[in-house]
Structures are given as structure tokens and as C-alpha cells.
């Protein structure tokens, strides 16, 4: 039998099963607190799907996804802060943290964010446009591989430092203490559950987009660029454009994840989007299997869960575990967990399916 | 005029710090194409070497002079072990090397945290490096002058070794064309190990020097690493002279930019300048001409 999940029926079955688990099973068995955690992990999983596309399929190691995650998060946080301030003190009010910092006038760039429509449009458009511009600048000049990885990492560092310097964005402490999410009280457990459903729904949509991209002609081209960029160029394609699409899509996913992350967790600060958090996004993708579709999701959920479960009780041991996971998984199992099945098949001396090759 | 000279010195000194951190990288990343994210932790190991040496020896001046060669050995041996255990098996997967060595860096940071504690420690600056010197109307701290001098010595030493010793000739041969070098009877494996030893040792030396101008914590190395990588990228792979020019240019740029705006904007400015610069010269300042398509 051919791989069942590669067929149309199999795809729908897979999505239906995932939806059943996320929307049916999880709210039944998990307490409100744990459901909130799952919503947070789901945000990481959404980022991971994007990284899987850019890195696993496109070969672009983006060490700066925290930038796009942070953009989405800060844009959303600005709107929530504005809405809270207007709810308390009427239109044109200054958010509470600015009052504490001694800022009496609302900065001009904050004003449009009192509009929910503008905010959502900005979350979707701004990071994507930034990724397109940066991607064109970098890929058109054929900056790639290690150079790109280092540039993207430097970008994450510069972005975090820039934010720390901005008092009108909360500086080092970031933005926190949100009361309402588009008019819904965030302290209400029902609304928290709603947020989880939004996160889970977005995850399914994002996976569906990634799947469509993989199965399209574009997906083939992307893998071709990863494996033999020069050959694709000789065939008449512009490799840079192909890369930019994957990079911008990954940026969009990360931005949306950041925007959901803010109301779920209730805080965003430069510490959660700098160099180290950005590279941590990679860990889950690597463990799950960078080139597979579901691998990054599973890996990201597993890493986030392990971090929550272990890091408070054994902070030292968890850091060692993280480091060793990076070393062992990438050195010994570059295809991640998703490649284990293919490896065992090879062991039984039957030809491995082409799809599973990392 | 005084302001200008003052800024020039700040730039030169920031540049020489960058250069010390980047010199080892320009050997391992530039010459061998290996991205070693644990390089920052080798710098951190150098810092702690200076700290421990001072605890043992006591006298600040003597311990600094002893710590420099010990730092070189500590960094070098760590790099040599890393090359032998991990990097050697990953030469054909450069991006994976990056992630694996990041994992190594995480482990090393945690080791430092468990051994020395998370709070920063300080190394006493020796008597003869305290205070400043009046130069062309501005006062320059002696520690900064010492670091500039050390950077000059290190660059000169590396250049001389690469150019005039048999070992350096072998390194250049392997960088130029690995297959041809092997055909000529050079063991590229030995050369790789040696290059990595020297490059990582330089990180240790940089770490010892950095204790003079700042405190040491487990994350010290990380803060220098990204800037050091940018220096190597902007300077061009495989070129010591590129690293020198790029380090001084970036240091000066950052110092001047900081005077007219803030330190955080200066970091962003450096990033923008490098992206724009790579538009003009995607291969960096000085390029090693090859016929490879990659």
C-alpha cells in the first residue's frame, strides 16, 4: 500500500483527526491552566511550520524568526494597550506604562493602533513586507547559506536591542497586563478557551497552507533550489524569487503566531524575541524533522512542553538537555523523528520512499 | 578636533576588541568555512581563565601575563577537542555545524554557570594599566591601549605564521584547494585540527584581554559573537586583512554613530550598513578568487 497520508482521502483524514484532538479531546481532558499552556505551545508550533518551510524545504536557516514573531506580538500588544487605555480614560488616552514612564503625549505612531482593523492588517502586512524587502536584498545578491544564517541572527540581535531602547514600547520590560481582547475580558476562562481555539484553528490553516505549497509546482521548485540552486538558475528560474516566497511565508506565520501569543500569555518583552529565543524556535523543528510537514509541529509542542515541565524544577539540567539535544539530533539524526520510520525501512532493505528523504 | 580624535580612538579601541574576537573566527570560519557558535564560549573560557589565574597567583600584573598564554592553551584545547569529536564529521554540512556548535555553547555556558555562578565576576586590573595616557589632547585609558597593542601583536603573529612557516603554508594550501593539497602529500585532517587549535586559542586570548574592560559572566562570549561574525562576513572569507579593515571600520562607525544617537540605534545602524554593503560586494571586502560556483 502506498503512503495513506499522501492520498487525498488520507489528507482529509489527517486534518479531521487533528481537529478532533485539538478541538474535541484537548478541552475535555485539560484544565483551563493547561489549555492556556497548550495555546502558548501552539503559537510556537505555528512558527515552527514556517521554519520547516523556509529551512527544511528551502534550505534557508532563518535564525531570526523572533523578529517577525516579535513584530506581530508588539503590533497586537500596542492595540491591546490602546484599547485598555481608551476603555478607562476615553479616546486619546495614554497607556498605563507610559504614564509610569512619564510620557504624557501619545506618540504619533501609536495612534492608528486604536483601530482593530488597522492592527490586524498591520500584523499581516508589515512583517511580510519587511521579509520581502530584506529577502530580495539578500537573495538577489546571492547571499546564502552561512552568510544568510548569520545575517538573520544579527537581525534578531539588533531588533531586540532596538526594542530595549524604546521607552515608548516598554523598553526592557516590554508590554504586559492586558485586560481586553477586542472587547472580550481576558480574565474570563471562557475567553481564554476561545483564544486556544483561535490558536488551534490558525495552526490547522497554517499547516494546510504549507501542505498546499509543498504539493504544488512551487514546492518542487523550492526543494530544487535547496538541493541544487545553480541548476535551477540554469533552467531559467529566478532562485531568489522562489526563496523570497518561502521566507516571507515563514515571516507571516511567525507574525500571526506572535499576535496570538500576546493575549494568551499576557506579556511580550525583548527577552522573548532576541537571538537565543530565535534559535530555540529551531530546536523543535530539528527534533521533529525539518523537511516533514507534521514533524516541526510535533517537535515544537514537545520541546515547549518539556521546557515547561523541566525548566522550573531543574533549570540547570534542562539547559544541558537543550544543548545535548541540539548536538545529538542534528549530528546523528538530521532528518529528525520523522526520518526514523524511513531509517528502519532502509534497515529492512526495502527501498525508502522518496518523500521521506531529508 | 579634540572630539574627532577622541572618537577616532574610541573607534580604534572598539575595533580592536572586535578584531581580537573576530581574528580566531576568520581562521575557523573564513579559512575552513566552519561556523563555530561555541567560539563565544571559548572567549568566555578565556575570561574565566584570567579570573582563576588571578585567584591563584594573586598579583594582578603577573597573573595577566601568565593568563594570556594559558588562555590560548585553554581555548585551543577546547577547540581542538570540539573539532575532533564533532566538527570533523560535519564538514559537508555547514549549517548543521552552526546548530551543533550552538548546542555545545549552551552546554559550556551552563557549565560556567554551575562552576562559577551566574553573577558576573571581576578581574582586578593591574597597577600599570590603571589610569590614562594623554595622547594628542585626549585621555586614552591604558587598558584600551593595551588591547590595541595586543590586537596588533595577534594580527602580526597570525600573518607571519601563515606566510612564513611551513605550517602556515600548509594551511594556505588547504584553503586554496583541498584536493590538490592532499595530492601534494599534505594531511588536510592534521591541518584542520591545527587551524582550529590556533583559531580557538585566539578566542581564549581575546577573553583574557576582555576582562580588563568588563566583568565576566557565563553569557559574556555570546555578546561578542554576533559582532565578530559580522566582521568576518563584511571582511570577506579567508582574509585576515579583510577582518582587520572591517573590524576597524565597524568599530569606528559604531563609535561615531553612538555619539550622535544611542547605543541601541548604533547596533541597528551597523546591521543596515552591512546589508547595504553586501549589496555592493556580496563576497565581502577582500575576496579569495575561486572558480567554485557555490
UniProtKB/TrEMBL annotation, chain A:
PANTHER family: HIGH-AFFINITY BRANCHED-CHAIN AMINO ACID TRANSPORT SYSTEM PERMEASE, SLR1201 PROTEIN. CDD domains: TM_PBP1_LivM_like. It is found in: Cell membrane. It is a multi-pass membrane protein. The chain crosses the membrane at residues 12-30, 36-55, 62-80, 117-139, 146-165, 194-213, 234-254, 260-286, 293-311, 323-343. The keyword Transmembrane applies. Keywords: Cell membrane, Membrane, Transmembrane, Transmembrane helix. This is Urea transport system permease protein. It holds the Pfam family BPD_transp_2. Its main location: membrane. It comes from the Bacteria. InterPro entries: ABC_transp_permease, ABC_transptr_urea_perm_UrtC, LivM-like. GO terms for cellular component: plasma membrane. One of its GO terms (molecular function) is branched-chain amino acid transmembrane transporter activity.
Automatic annotation (TrEMBL), chain B:
The keyword Electron transport does not apply. The chain crosses the membrane at residues 64-82, 145-162, 196-216, 228-250, 262-280. Keywords: Amino-acid transport, Cell membrane, Membrane, Transmembrane, Transmembrane helix, Transport. GO terms for molecular function: transmembrane transporter activity. InterPro entries: ABC_transp_permease, ABC_UrtB_bac, BCAA_transport_permease. One of its GO terms (biological process) is amino acid transport. GO terms for cellular component: plasma membrane. It is a multi-pass membrane protein. Its main location: membrane. It is found in: Cell membrane. Belongs to the binding-protein-dependent transport system permease family. LivHM subfamily. PANTHER family: ABC TRANSPORTER PERMEASE PROTEIN, BRANCHED-CHAIN AMINO ACID TRANSPORT SYSTEM PERMEASE PROTEIN LIVH. This is Urea transport system permease protein. It comes from Glycomyces harbinensis. The lineage of its organism: Bacteria, Bacillati, Actinomycetota, Actinomycetes, Glycomycetales.
